[in-house]
Structure formats: C-alpha cells, structure tokens
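PROTEIN DESIGN WORKSHEET
SECTION A - STRUCTURE
LENGTH: 191
TOKENS:
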C-alpha cells in the first residue's frame, strides 16, 4: 500500500512541476516558470503527504471477520444464536466476494455463454462458421470453470451450457441463459 501511495505521490508531484512550469513560463518567462514549478511540485507533495491516511484507507481491502469466510455467530433472542453472513459473503452459496472479483468473473461467464448461444443459434443461416462456434464453446467452458466463480452462478452456467450444447431448443437455451443472467444479478444485489 505504501508503494502505491508513493507512486501516486510521484506522479502528482511530477504533473504539478510540469504544469506549474508551463503555466509560469507562459505568464512571465523562465524565472516565473521555475518558481511556479517549484511551488506546484511542493504543493502537490505536501498535499499528498497530508492525505496519505485517507489514501491508505481507500486502498485497504475490506476486513473479513476473525471467524473467516462463511458465517459468524451472533447472539440472538431466545435460546440459541443467529448466524449472520460474514462480511462479503454471498447468501446461500458459501462463497466470499472479495473486492468485486467474483462479480467480474460472473460477468465474464455471462458474456461468454451469451456469445456461445449466439453462435449456436445465429440470426442468419450461415451467420457463424463451425470454427467460430467451436472457439466460442471452448472459451465459454474455460471461463465457466474458473475457480473464483460463486457456486450459484456456476450451477446456472452449467445448466445454460447444457441447454446451448444440445442446439435444438432455442427457447430452452434462452431461458437457461436468462436464469444465468438473473444469478449474476442476484450476486450483485447480495453485495
């Protein structure tokens, strides 16, 4: 984190020096250009130094409770405890979403399955060649096998791939891809 902040600070200071130098040179020549470059660089450096805590807090990942992924036991009314989902957990799936990574993988799965569906059920008779269909199928299967894919999306993707692979019932394939898109949407809504 400190390295990222240092790189951001360096870029801000260099941009301040360059911008201040150009602005000062346009207004009053060399001397004013040098003075403006030093002042702008110094201002950018001081401002970045003073905001380092805010930047570090922004770049820090969300904390995961001490119990780890899954569920955390919280005291509840009555005789027992209520299990609340952990920070970043997707309800009913057992998977943990870290910084939107699983959402990105799920979006990629949806796009790949949809393009494979479009290759199997093209709008025109000779719209897609057999090589393109095979290539899209391979990409869809590789992306759907990704480790970071939440279980609910993985199951929907498998059903969609099965329906598209059969290649006979476009309505069933469309319904399966629609169910996949709803699973991806539910993943986003759970966050």
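SECTION B - SEQUENCE
RESIDUE ASSIGNMENT:
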């Amino acid at each position: 984190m400190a390295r990222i902040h240092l790189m951001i600070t360096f870029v801000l200071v260099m941009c301040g020096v360059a911008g201040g130098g150009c602005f000062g040179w346009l207004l009053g020549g060399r001397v004013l250009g040098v003075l403006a470059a030093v002042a702008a660089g110094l201002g950018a450096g001081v401002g970045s130094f003073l905001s380092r805590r805010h930047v570090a807090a922004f770049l820090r990942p969300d904390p995961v409770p001490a119990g780890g992924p899954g569920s955390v036991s919280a005291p509840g009314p009555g005789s027992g405890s209520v299990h609340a989902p952990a920070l970043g957990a997707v309800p009913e799936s057992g998977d943990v979403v870290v910084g939107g990574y699983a959402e990105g993988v799920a979006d990629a799965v949806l796009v790949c399955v949809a393009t494979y569906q479009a290759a199997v059920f093209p709008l025109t008779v000779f719209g897609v060649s057999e090589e393109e269909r095979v290539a899209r199928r391979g990409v869809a299967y590789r992306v759907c096998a990704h480790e970071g894919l939440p279980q609910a999306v993985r199951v929907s993707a498998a059903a969609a791939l099965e329906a598209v692979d059969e290649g006979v019932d476009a309505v069933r394939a469309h319904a399966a891809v629609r169910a996949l898109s709803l699973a991806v949407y539910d993943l986003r809504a759970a966050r």
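SECTION C - NOTES
Residues 2-28 form the longest helix (27 residues).
The helical segments are 2-28, 30-50, 52-59, 101-120, 130-144, 151-166, 170-190.
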